[in-house]
Amino acid sequence: MERTDQSLVGRWWWRVDRWTVLALGALCGLGWVLTLAASPAVANRIGADSFHFVRHQLTMMPLALVAIFLVSLQSPRTIRRVAVIGLALSLAALVMTFVIGVEIKGARRWISIAGLSVQPSEFVKPCFAIVAAWMFAEQKNPESRLPGYLIAGALYLTVLALLLLQPDLGQAMVVTAMFLAEFYLAGMPALLVPLAVSSVAGGVVAAYFLLPMSMRASRGSCTPVPAIPIR
Predict the structure, then answer these.
(1) Is 100 helix (H, G, I), strand (E, B) or coil?
(2) Residue range of the domain that includes 87
(3) Are residues 186 and 204 in the same domain?
(4) Is position 223 within any domain?
(5) What is the pLDDT along the chain (231 residues), one digit of tens a residue?
(6) Is the residue at 93 inside a domain?
(7) Does residue 165 lie within any of the structural domains?
(8) Is 148 contained in some domain?
C-alpha cells in the first residue's frame, strides 16, 4: 500500500504498531503448537478423536483474527466506550457465577449463556486493562478532574475480590500483574514499587497455603469415587 492511500485499511496499515502485530502472530502460532502438543491426550480422555481441539483451534483462530482487525480499526473513544460497557457486563456475569455458576473442583468460574459455557473473567481482563489505562491517563490530564488513580484502584480491588472468592488464583495474578504494569508505566511513586512487589509475593504465598484448604473443604461434600485397582 502507498503512503498516500487514505482508505481505512491504508491508514491502519501505516499507523499500526508492527511489533504488536508480530507479537500477536507469534502468540497465535505458539498457541497452536501448544494445542497440537498437549490436547490429543485430553481429547482421547473424553472420548473424542486426537485432533478434536486442534481443529477447533484452527476453526476459531481466523474468526479471532478478524475480530482483532475490526477492533483495531476503531477510534480510541469508541474502544473506551466499549470497554466500559464490557467491564460492567462482565463484572455482573462474574457476580452471577456465585448464583448460577457451575462448581468444578471447588471453584465457580463458569456460567451457561444460551447453551454456551462462558468464563466471565476472560472478558473482565481486556476490558479492565483498557479502563484502568484510561483512568491512569486521566489522572495525568490537567484538564480532567477524574480521580483516575482512585477509580482504577477501586476497580482493581473489586475484580480481585471477585476472582479470589471463586477462587481463581491464576486470573487474580494475571490481573494484578497487568494493573501494576500499567500503574508503573503511568508513573507509580518509587516508594510504592517495593511495597507492591512485597504485597504480591506475600499474597501468592498466603493463597498457596489458604486456597487449597478451602477448595478441599468445598469438595468434602461430594460423593467419593471408588478407587480402581491397577493390575
Answers:
(1) helix
(2) 76-217
(3) yes
(4) no
(5) 677 777 778 888 888 888 988 999 899 889 888 888 888 888 888 888 888 888 888 888 889 889 888 888 888 899 999 999 999 999 998 888 888 877 776 777 888 777 777 888 889 999 999 999 999 999 888 888 888 889 999 999 999 999 988 888 888 889 998 999 998 888 887 787 788 888 878 877 777 777 654 444 444 434 343 434 443
(6) yes
(7) yes
(8) yes
What CA–CA distance (Å, rounded) separates 151 from 128? 11
pTM: 0.77
The terminus-to-terminus CA distance of the chain in angstroms comes to: 66
Is residue 106 a contact partner of residue 215, using CB atoms and an 8 Å limit?
Answer: yes
Query: What count of other Cβ atoms lies within 10 Å of the Cβ of residue 64?
Result: 12
- To the nearest 10 degrees (0 to 180), the angle between helices 148-165 and 169-185 is 170
The SS3 assignment for 119 reads: coil
Judge if 61 and 154 occupy the same domain. Answer: no
Other C-beta atoms within 10 Å of 8: how many? 9
Say yes or no: 102 and 185 in one domain: yes
Say yes or no: 103 and 157 in one domain: yes
DSSP-based three-state secondary structure for 31: helix
